[in-house]
Amino acid sequence: MEILSEKGIEGLSLRNVAKKVGVSHTAPYNHFSNKQALLAAISTVGHEQLYQTLSGSFNKCKHSSTKIIYEIAWSYLQFALDDPGKFKLMFSGALEEERDHPAYVEISRKNISLLEEIIVYCQKKGQIADGKVESIATRLWSVVHGFTHLVLEDQFPREYVQDQSIKELLKMVIS
Fold first, then answer.
1. CA 95/CA 116 separation, integer angstroms
2. CA-closest candidate to residue 67, choices 118, 110, 117, 135
3. ∠ CA(161), CA(138), CA(140), 5° rounding?
4. In the chain, at which residue ranges do the beta strands (DSSP E only) sit?
5. How far apart are CA 50 and CA 30, in angstroms?
6. 1, burial (CB in 10 Å: exposed 0-12, middle 13-18, buried 19+)
7. What is the pLDDT along the chain (175 residues), one digit of tens a residue?
8. Could you give the C-alpha distances from 140 to 1, 122, 168, 173, in angstroms and in order?
9. Whole-angstrom distance, CA of residue 128 vs CA of residue 122
10. 36 CB burial (10 A radius; 0-12, 13-18, 19+)
11. DSSP state, residue 129
12. What is the DSSP letter of 44?
């Protein structure tokens, strides 16, 4: 994770991992068959952490907040800001042949199911208009994920954020 944070995906290799932990350059192959297996392991753990973050936020706010989608979006953004390298890897496309990594596929589906559960819950509470859950999920995730990447890459023009915080800007986008 340190290598990922310091050097990005490009600097992440089994050889660099071995060097970082002070073992022979072949030692990581006892745990990972190749770089793809390493990427899958990191991405799987990242998606598990994202699931815990989002489900925790949902369970915390679902009975007291009228802005559940905003709270979930804020948790998503905070997760990305806490470890941008891991977040970028999780959604980078660097992991090829995802189907070869069943744990990754399972947790990815679990995150999608959570988003759908949140949407259905919000529809029942009248916080989101009725509609096809998959379409709403696509729209919401696209907005929040795109917003998150703009924040991570510091791409908002200064005049967009000069009079408001990122939190306020997110609230406006989600509303």
1. 24
2. 118
3. 35
4. none
5. 27
6. middle
7. 777 777 777 777 788 787 878 888 787 777 888 888 888 999 999 999 999 999 999 999 998 878 899 999 999 999 999 999 999 989 988 888 888 899 999 999 999 999 999 999 999 999 999 999 999 999 999 999 999 999 999 998 888 888 888 999 999 998 8
8. 29, 13, 17, 10
9. 6
10. middle
11. -
12. H
Quick count: other Cβ atoms within 10 Å of Cβ 20?
13
pTM, rounded to two decimals: 0.88
The residue assigned the tokens 């023009």 is: 157
Encoded tokens for 10: 């490009």
Output the CA–CA distances (angstroms, integers) from residue 167 to 60, 127, 174, in the order listed: 19, 19, 11
